[in-house]
């Protein structure tokens, strides 16, 4: 009965337009009042939230958001683009390949798919259009490549999953990197295939390359190396076990400030302060939502909801394969309307463990579905970010992006069904 009250109020409040955080909060409080505080009281809610808030993962999420914002405002995207253009300039698919590579690489810095879509899309999509390339196709391709920013470490989706499931971020990052880079390679291959017929303005591309080449190898590499070093420092520190995820996140903030203020000089102290303020607003809502999501598992324990749900699911889905496929389908459908990770993970993570499914592979796979879920209509956020940049209707972009989404979903599902393909990354 308590679970029915919680779910009912939660869904109704979301439908009325309340934020995820407010919906969660009200859904916690209203059942307590309705049951006369016999099952749990307000102090119980406070204790659950305090327990949930004491996770180092939240610190990592906050710091990566800060460093991503600073790097975005510090114009590191332009330096990364110039580096790839210098080395790929003779290729007829140079500009499209450089655009996709920049989106993927920037994702390794920011950890946020939406930040990548906004920052890289605003810079390179107008350039692709100016060079005569298909605007709808590359709006979709950049949205797809940008979405990998939530899967390729430092992945915000993986950090959120780990906060709720209590799994190790560093190990899951390694699996996420394997899955994310596989998707990236496939997107690059699809770009090459597309450019066999969509060549754009080759003469304009050649002139741009020659202009960049005239600056010389030393100047181009010397300028861009500072942006390129960021993911090397972050991922190198984590994967070599020299740094914890939180330590790597802290170093990324210091590095972003240093490069933006003193190397590129693209930010002053006022700009830096604005980047910090913007980050705080982003982090506050995410952190509160995660705290409620983690506390949700405590609420389930009050009325043994986890056992009831697990029994119901395992009675229908009797094999790990069936459970994994169902998980992907449910999460994919949910992502069409909202980000259901905070609702689903506290329920499915323990069930996956009971099936003996590798928690790192399962978690990275589910995080991947969340990452690319920003591409799916009717409410795919990346579609609406890219639409005004491309000056194309979101549903037009959706038609082009769905094949990319389908291919990446298939790749993620294969890795989840055959964990031996990626467990080597952390064992």
From TrEMBL:
Region forming the signal peptide: none
Q: TRAP C4-dicarboxylate transport system permease DctM subunit domain location, by residue?
A: 9-421
List the Pfam families hit by this protein, alphabetically: DctM
Task: List where in the cell it is found.
Answer: Cell inner membrane
Keywords attached to this Swiss-Prot or TrEMBL record, sorted alphabetically, are: Cell inner membrane, Cell membrane, Membrane, Transmembrane, Transmembrane helix
Query: Topology relative to the membrane, per the entry?
Result: Multi-pass membrane protein
What is the protein's major site of localization? membrane
Which domain of life, per UniProt? Bacteria
What are the transmembrane regions?
A: 52-71, 112-129, 136-152, 172-195, 216-239, 245-264, 284-303, 309-330, 337-357, 369-389, 401-418
* Alphabetized PANTHER family for the sequence: SIALIC ACID TRAP TRANSPORTER PERMEASE PROTEIN SIAT-RELATED
Q: What protein am I looking at?
A: TRAP transporter large permease
Q: Give the species.
A: Ventrimonas faecis
């Amino acid at each position: 009965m308590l679970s029915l009250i919680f779910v009912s109020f939660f869904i109704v409040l979301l439908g009325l337009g309340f934020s995820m955080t407010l919906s969660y909060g009200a859904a916690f409080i209203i059942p307590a009042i309705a049951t006369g505080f016999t099952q749990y009281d307000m102090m119980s809610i406070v204790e659950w939230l305090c327990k949930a808030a004491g996770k180092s993962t939240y610190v990592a999420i906050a710091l990566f958001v800060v460093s991503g914002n600073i790097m975005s405002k510090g114009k590191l995207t332009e330096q990364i683009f110039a580096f790839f253009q210098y080395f790929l300039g003779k290729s007829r698919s140079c500009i499209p390949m450089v655009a996709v590579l920049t989106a993927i690489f920037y994702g390794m810095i920011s950890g946020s798919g939406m930040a990548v879509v906004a920052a890289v899309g605003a810079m390179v999509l107008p350039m692709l259009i100016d060079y005569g390339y298909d605007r709808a196709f590359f709006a979709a391709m950049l949205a797809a490549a940008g979405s990998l920013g939530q899967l390729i470490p430092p992945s915000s989706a993986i950090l959120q999953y780990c906060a709720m499931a209590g799994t190790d971020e560093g190990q899951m990052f390694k699996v996420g990197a394997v899955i994310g880079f596989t998707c990236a390679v496939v997107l690059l291959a699809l770009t090459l295939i597309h450019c066999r017929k969509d060549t754009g303005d080759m003469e304009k591309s050649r002139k741009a390359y020659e202009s960049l080449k005239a600056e010389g190898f030393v100047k181009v590499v010397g300028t861009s190396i500072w942006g390129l070093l960021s993911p090397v420092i972050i991922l190198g520190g984590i994967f070599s076990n020299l740094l914890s995820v939180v330590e790597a996140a802290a170093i990324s903030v210091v590095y972003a400030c240093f490069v933006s203020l003193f190397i590129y000089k693209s930010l002053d102290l006022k700009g830096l302060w604005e980047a910090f303020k913007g980050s705080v607003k982003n982090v506050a809502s995410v952190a509160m939502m995660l705290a409620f999501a983690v506390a949700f598992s405590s609420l389930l324990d009050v009325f043994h909801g986890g056992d009831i749900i697990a029994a119901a699911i395992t009675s229908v889905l009797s094999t790990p394969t069936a459970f994994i496929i169902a998980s992907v389908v449910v999460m994919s459908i949910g992502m069409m309307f909202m980000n259901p990770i905070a609702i689903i993970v506290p329920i499915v993570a323990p069930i996956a463990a009971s099936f003996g499914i590798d928690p790192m592979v399962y978690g990275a796979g589910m995080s991947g579905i969340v990452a690319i879920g920003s591409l799916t209509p009717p409410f795919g956020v990346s579609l609406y970010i890219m639409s005004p940049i491309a000056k194309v209707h979101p549903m037009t972009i959706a038609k082009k992006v769905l094949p990319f989404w389908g291919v990446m979903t298939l790749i993620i599902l294969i890795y989840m069904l055959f964990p031996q393909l990626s467990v080597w990354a952390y064992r």
